[in-house]
Amino acid sequence: xxxxxxxxxxxxxxxxxxxxxxxxxxxxxxxxxxxxxxxxxxxxxxxxxxxxxxxxxxxxxxxxxxxxxxxxxxxxxxxxxxxxxxxxxxxxxxxxxxxxxxxxxxxxxxxxxxxxxxxxxxxxxxxxxxxxxxxxxxxxxxxxxxxxxxxxxxxxxxxxxxxxxxxxxxxxxxxxxxxxxxxxxxxxxxxxxxxxxxxxxxxxxxxxxxxxxxxxxxxxxxxxxxxxxxxxxxxxxxxxxxxxxxxxxxxxxxxxxxxxxxxxxxxxxxxxxxxxxxxxxxxxxxxxxxxxxxxxxxxxxxxxxxxxxxxxxxxxxxxxxxxxxxxxxxxxxxxxxxxxxxxxxxxxxxxxxxxxxxxxxxxxxxxxxxxxxxxxxxxxxxxxxxxxxxxxxxxxxxxxxxxxxxxxxxxxxxxxxxxxxxxxxxxxxxxxxxxxxxxxxxxxxxxxxxxxxxxxxxxxxxxxxxxxxxxxxxxxxxxxxxxxxxxxxxxxxxxxxxxxxxxxxxxxxxxxxxxxxxxxxxxxxxxxxxxxxxxxxxxxxxxxxxxxxxxxxxxxxxxxxxxxxxxxxxxxxxxxxxxxxxxxxxxxxxxxxxxxxxxxxxxxxxxxxxxxxxxxxxxxxxxxxxxxxxxxxxxxxxxxxxxxxxxxxxxxxxxxxxxxxxxxxxxxxxxxxxxxxxxxxxxxxxxxxxxxxxxxxxxxxxxxxxxxxxxxxxxxxxxxxxxxxxxxxxxxxxxxxxxxxxxxxxxxxxxxxxxxxxxxxxxxxxxxxxxxxxxxxxxxxxxxxxxxxxxxxxxxxxxxxxxxxxxxxxxxxxxxxxxxxxxxxxxxxxxxxxxxx
Length: 837
What we know:
Layout: E1 46-51, H1 56-74, E2 78-82, E3 92-98, H2 101-110, E4 114-119, E5 149-153, H3 159-162, H4 168-171, H5 174-185, E6 189-191, E7 194-195, H6 197-202, E8 208-210, H7 231-240, H8 251-258, H9 260-293, H10 298-304, E9 313-314, E10 325-326, H11 331-340, H12 343-373, H13 379-383, H14 388-393, E11 396-399, E12 406-409, H15 412-452, H16 457-461, H17 463-496, H18 502-530, E13 537-538, E14 541-542, H19 560-596, H20 607-612, H21 621-637, H22 646-668, H23 682-705, H24 708-718, H25 725-729, E15 730-734, H26 749-752, E16 757-761, H27 777-807, H28 813-836
Antiparallel strand pairs: 1-3, 1-8, 2-3, 4-5, 6-7, 9-10, 11-12, 13-14, 15-16
């Protein structure tokens, strides 16, 4: 390939660069040729891209770039520049970066990288009979297993024992190479006290910085003449394609291509999705049981029969505007409630509590296995470096008691001020969330009163459904709007705290954002589950403490169906919106980016320019993915007693989510640098906390929100004393005892006749008795049964959880043996080295 050099002033639209422009070559470069410098030997480890403009601002950017690139060359990196004339739109300049062997070995030792010592000779000893059986879920044969090695921390003085001259080009993987280059890029200064590629991109000195993909993701070879595929094509064909949704994920290949941090996310997501299968099956069985037995449920049948409980006259559900109504009007509501509130629900809640325990314990074992195989067991203690931002912000130095070297630090006094500020702002933000929830509650109260006052029977009978459904939709919109605000607040507060390492920064940011999201998503659900209808008082003595308004009541069949409806809309609506956003937004951005690149020359579109046109992976991309799944996990566990179908919807969503994420990473996003991570971070602690909360909430939902306990008490102790369940669970009120502000304007005597009493949901003495409207003995029996159920449920679940934790060791035996052998081989290699010297 012929080339020319051009030199001109960058501020006048042409930069001082080394250009390589095709002059009508008689051959076409292959895609893999663009992965190297023009000499065809030095591999491109990173790309910097920028657009050339004119003006004083651009001259400042030119100066910053020259200083920055000069610092990179001082660190030993090799740079090769491509003029804008080589790009298809004649505007973009590229800087190609290559890390020579000396730089790689130097930083591998600084970063304490673990490198191959000898191939793992114990892997075959622990294969099970099941693993030798072929299933449709296995990966295709072209996805060959990744070689597994025993490793040891890199040491340049022992390199000649492990690496020959010929092996140097392949000794460091592409992921390790771009990680080393990114470490240099993140610390290189471009002016006094200003440094790092992140800042250079934020001030628009560079448009992008990224490692190259291995080539096109579509295999151009025909099925009749298959050729060797690069790693990107292998991942696309066997992982990212929608037709591979049922296949196992090639986790080792994902890790090798994208790094451990992304690899462990997909490992966790795949494991979580697999564990949802038994939960989804059990939830579906419970729902089917409810559908099959709903007509056989005697209380529901009595409520829907106008000759039985359905003929009972109920007290108005709001003041003035609401009239009396027949219990039969809530027949549809009651039947829908039974689908989710039946005896199978209790069994399912217990099952899900144990499921969560198994989920945590087996993931802990899987995580230990991945930590060992991917050499991240000691990453946070030994390999993780100090954040460049912390080094710049910390104004004090101290001697590290372990390394005895000077290091930057922030005094406790300054930290206290920072944390007090963030705590105050966080508390205020949570109050804003609760205020938004209160607004939704007020809307539901107002719309319910308006609908009950109408003459239209359909609107009147379905007012609860309509009010709850529209309120849930409004709540979903408010949640999505507030999420964007909380992101900016969370970033600002976390940066203010001056965290030392990237893991500490991510953990602090994650905790704050999850706290926001927890209150944002779950506050309205907690209200319906534990507060709605619990403190309303009684007819004639309603509770008006909420700004003078009468509080909301539950339907005689309970609030569980409202809770179920709220959960379904928020959970499913969030998942649908998230998938639409993840599928179409990157496609639209990519379409506009590609469309903007007009073909103004006959040059071949290079690999680096093709990648430049891809979308950038958001800096917090994995955070959003984890957050989405953890919020979903809360729906699946915390409120599963109210919505047994939650695991099924979660399973369907996650099967789609894995392929959407895989497709984005392989085809639509620039290749991210291969970040390392030891585990899923603070998310594991958050999941553990959610599981603990779920045990309590499910017990309380079954005991106080559902009708399971009252029906149980009625069935075993009071069924012979009363004819029907609703005679047992509803109390009687004399309408002459109404407070004047509660008397309905329209008594509708033409329908109900001369109304003297009405019924309401409670266990109180009837009017005219010595203790009228006081709690009956039944109330205390039901309350005792509810509290006893909570105690038994929680203690039984906690005991079984402890038993599972005791019986299942945290570390698999196979991993423990391999770790011992690795230590033995490392000592043996060290002794050989000492003997030679």
